[in-house]
Amino acid sequence: MTPRNLPDIERIRTFEAVRRAARPARRAALALALPLVVFLIVAFVAPILYLLVTAVDNPETRAVLPHTLVALEAWDGKATPDEAVFAALAADLKQAGTDKTAALVGKRLNYEISGMRSKVLSASRMAAGLNKGPYRDAFLAQDAIWGAVDTWAVIKRNGKGLTPYYLLTAVDLKQSPGGGIEQVAPDQAIFLSILGRTLLVAGMVTACTLILGYPVAYVLTIAPRTVAGIMMLMVLLPLWTSLLVRTTAWVVLLQSDGVINSILMALHLTAGKVQLIFTRFGTVTAMTHIQLPFTILPIYSVMRSIQPTQLRAARSLGAGPTSAFWRIYAPQTVPGVVAGCLMTFILSLGYYITPALVGGPQDQMVSNFISTYINRDLNWGLAAALGVVLLIVTMAIYGLFLRLVGAEKFKLG
After folding, report:
1. For residue range 135-151, what is the model confidence (pLDDT) as tens digits?
2. pLDDT tens digits for range 8-46
3. Rounded distance, CA 170 to CA 192, Å?
4. Same domain, yes or no, for 154 and 213?
5. How many other CB atoms sit within 10 Å of the CB of residue 254?
6. In this structure, is residue 27 part of a structural domain?
7. In a domain, 13, yes or no
8. Pick from 49, 58, 121: which is nearest to 380 by CA?
9. DSSP secondary structure string, 331-370?
């Protein structure tokens, strides 16, 4: 070992000693952060993973028609299956009638073939009385749908554990009998328009909150302490009331015999009652009021960090009030504007209660349809697929914001 290498060796030893000394502190920090990590996994990561799995999970046909799917493996897909397939179908449906699971597979097939649920239930009752063949003739006599090649193509396709059906449906696409992807019929293409409506309403709410919230945030920074305190209380006050109560208050204000219509007629601004509730205007107005604090607070926190002397310096150098504000002050508020607008936009994408109570049929958003498929139709797969599409759109918009504005400018204060 040469003397020249001694300083390097000493530095390595010092570095290792520092690392060993820091290990207890790192372990303590990890132990303190572990409950938060576990909470995030349980409350955030796990539900998203479950959502993703549910959107492609396809257990019904495999569970109820196992022998039929095995018999269909040799089917060429060009003509009605042979007797062996129908015999397997009869055995599966007979067992399904005993296990009370025929409705399960019927409901799943009904998503792709209209009326299939009732036909499966009828076939299950018929199969219970069949003790011998020919099974093929019995099924064809019972309903012509069992002779259709498309019916068996759908059954065979649903024998796989994972399916793209729900995700394709959520973007107005479907699988053809041959396995390709094509557009659904125009009268069934509703989900892309619903997604567009959701983005439009969220964008309108974001624009309204920015137009109303930016001046308020600015006044909060320049107002005397007492006045600013009262104004801040008014900004925060809606957050202390539940979302349902605030939405119900807007129902009272916007209804035909409500406060706003009474004031408009008393001031002779309108000749009759104006339809305000169950409209796009009512939905955007109520959502803007609810989301306004979420836009104001990030902008206000950034404005507070801007030194007012900068505007005075710009004025002393010859800039006018408007020029000084837009060229010196406004660019520095971009981080708060981005944070507030992004928060409002993302929260607005998932609104459910306000459009449901204040909006009309043409104002219902993606979340309303997710609720319908969960609570009324019990179609968890399609509800999960709509949730996945909304999640992807949200992440894409978030990434676009970061790319256009820059991650270093995105902060809450």
Report:
1. 999 999 999 999 999 99
2. 677 777 777 777 777 888 888 888 888 988 998 998 899
3. 8
4. no
5. 23
6. no
7. no
8. 58
9. GGGHHHHHHHHHHHHHHHHT--HHHHHH--GGG--HHHHH
